[in-house]
Amino acid sequence: MARETQKIVVVGLGYIGLPTASMLATKGHTVLGVDVNEAAVNTINSGRIHIIEPDLDILVRSAVNSGNLRASTVPEEGDTFILAVPTPFKEENGNPKAPDLSYVETATRAIAPYVREDNLVILESTSPVGTTQFIQQIIESMRPELKGKVHFAHCPERVLPGHILRELVDNDRIIGGTSKMALTKAKALYKTFCNGAILETDSRTAELSKLVENSFRDVNIAFANELSVVCDRLGISVWETIGLANRHPRVNILQPGPGVGGHCIAVDPWFIVASAPDEARLIRTAREVNDAKPHWVIEKVRAKAERFRTPVIGCLGLTFKANIDDMRESPSMDIVQMLMASNIGTVMACDPNVAAEKVPFPLHDLKDVIRQADILLLLVDHEEFLEIDPQIVKDKVVIDTKGVLR
Ligand code: SAJ
After folding, report:
1. Could you tell me how many helices (H) and strands (E) the chain has, helices first?
2. Which of 54, 185, 198, 332 is the most buried (most CB within 10 A)?
């Protein structure tokens, strides 16, 4: 039997929406991608991309060339709507880390006039528990004649930036439906491109599962970061300690670093804390431990700087993790800016993955930074930095937050 294709409207053409829209289009669906960013819409319609992700350019080009993917600033009618917009923080009742659902709400209001009976509305954005029911309420209050006749599901994205296309296909996928029909329809849709298992549940459990995945990682990174501070106090190598402990068959400690960045792991645990503030004690503490790490790094630099009059501090790396150009919530960027604002020394920053116009300070060549630095602060394990010859830096004070210059 020929596979059924449908018209899909994807709202939000960022790191999740654009790969998903393009993937669906290359599987034969007719896809309209919607974004408020007109420049992004024009770029996509010309078969190019506005974000950096390996092989995404090839996928988008082939989706646009096939005629199955178009982008627009305005939604249209369709069979399925997928919302893939951000859910950042906002200040609320003194809590600076409250979830900001305004993008989800605006996107929902934008599609509401185009939704028809028997449509499926999927929320892919990482969201606090109850958000799928919230979008259902918005649509049913704007379109009361459709009450009970539209299907809603939460299908959280779980892809790792840098490996999005592979993980979109290979990862298992959670589908949280608000009805049996929502589950059946969503399952059929994801099966058109997902090779992983499709796991069915209700929308609230799906929402929490996604938040829990990222919180699990945050708590485990916090453990590694706390160990790094403990080891430093005891004068023991954290890298060697973790390497040895991980030889136990049931121990698998993650790696410490300058802190936790990105728009997911440093954000999502707060959504659990916001909905259960008295209960989510470990999750909150892990966030605090990871958020404290950049300040600890600064104090480390300050202590090492005491022996110099005005040291040159060479900072290697600005992104939130290795081999990407993404600086969102980046602890390395925070550290560099805090050092620049301090009177500890002269800061020279270097990141081969970051374009000069993306940062409000000058970027320097790696060779120049290594030559001029008194203190070399490694913040990101980009592959260019892994090749630094330890002999060249042996006379410098090296603070290596990623343990790669050993
Ligand atoms: N980090 C460490 N030590 C480690 C591992 C990571 O300090 O051992 C730091 C990184 O340097 C970075 C931060 O954690 O600053 C997050 O990096 P990451 O590679 O662990 O994760 P993200 O934020 O790029 O993507 C995560 C993924 N979630 C999980 O692995 C549970 C991804 O699968 C999600 O789809 C994504 O969040 C998301 O969009 O929610």
Report:
1. 14, 14
2. 332
Task: Judge whether 401 and 381 are in contact, CB under 8 Å.
Answer: no
Q: What residue has token string 């004068």?
A: 235
Question: Which residue lies with its CA nearest to atom 35 of ligand 1?
Answer: 158
Tokens of 235: 């004068």
Query: Does the beta carbon of 262 sit less than 6 angstroms from any atom of ligand 1?
Result: yes
**Residue of 111, 149, 155, 109 whose CA lies nearest to 132:** 155
Q: How far is the CA of 392 from the centre of ligand 1 (A)?
A: 32
- Say yes or no: domain 7-196 is CATH 3.40.50.720: yes
**What are 213's two structure tokens?**
């995945």
Q: Tell me phi and psi for residue 325, to 5 degrees.
A: -110, 5
Q: What is the pLDDT of residue 3?
A: 61
Pocket test of ligand 1: the residue of 321, 324, 325, 378 to mutate, having most ligand atoms within 8 Å of its CB, is 321
Q: Name the least confident of 40-49, 128-137, 320-329.
A: 320-329
Question: What's the token pair of residue 128?
Answer: 């606090």
Alpha helices in 27-174 (DSSP H): 38-45, 56-65, 102-111, 131-142, 164-170
Residue 382 Cβ contacting ligand 1 at under 6 Å: no
Give the mean model confidence (pLDDT) for residues 240-265.
Answer: 97
The conformational region for residue 137 under phi > 0 = left, psi -120 to 50 = alpha, else beta, is alpha
H or E element, residue 8: strand 7-11
Q: What is the pLDDT of residues 85-113, one digit of tens each?
A: 999 999 998 889 999 999 999 999 999 99
- Give the global pTM: 0.94
CATH hierarchy code of domain 211-400 = 3.40.50.720
Domain residue spans in the chain?
A: 7-196, 211-400
Determine which residue's CA is closest to atom 39 belonging to ligand 1: 264
Catalytic residue from among 264, 315, 350, 402? 264
